[in-house]
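INFO  loader      accepted 1 record
INFO  loader      residues=204
INFO  predictor   begin
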Amino acid sequence: MAIVNSTLQRYLPERAVGPCFELIKNNSVHLKIVNHRVTRHGDYRRASSGQHQITVNASLNKYRFLITLVHEIAHLVAFETYGRMIKPHGKEWKRTFQELMLPFIRPEIFPTQLLPLVAEHFKNPKASSSTDARLSIALKAFDEAQRSEKSYVFEIPLGSTFRLYNGKLFKKGNKRVKRYECIELETGRLFLFQPNAEVELITD
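INFO  predictor   done
INFO  writer      dumping tokens
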């Protein structure tokens, strides 16, 4: 998909369109907007031809789309600046992500209820914004599609059974610091879930 300003306007906050277009153009990014993927919001890869390809899920709301797009461009810039032997989400990437994101952290782009959480997140950005439970839950409020039958792990009762997107069943246990201990029913193995993990509560 050839990305032009009119395309980006569908997916980004209005005041972020111009700066994002410049980032895409200046870094020779081939941006593909793709169907929803459960396991990732976006990714970056350098093709054997040397082309920089970034994909971002079309299903993301405009604020998460912005964060994801800049996240992936930060991978490209960090690799080009520091070499391809750096850790994908190491200190070089974090520094680059912070620098690229800084111009967007302002009230003309993010709404009042999101701005403080975004600013706090970028003091030490994580590998995924989804691991920042407070920010992830706040971003979710701007999704167009309602969650309908989906629940967050922190919302469901202790001891209840839930299903993941892959069909596996778990029983919710106690909270350990920030995450919840959950037992996979088929294997009896213990897993730790982020409080904002989306699951299907089993009520039978």
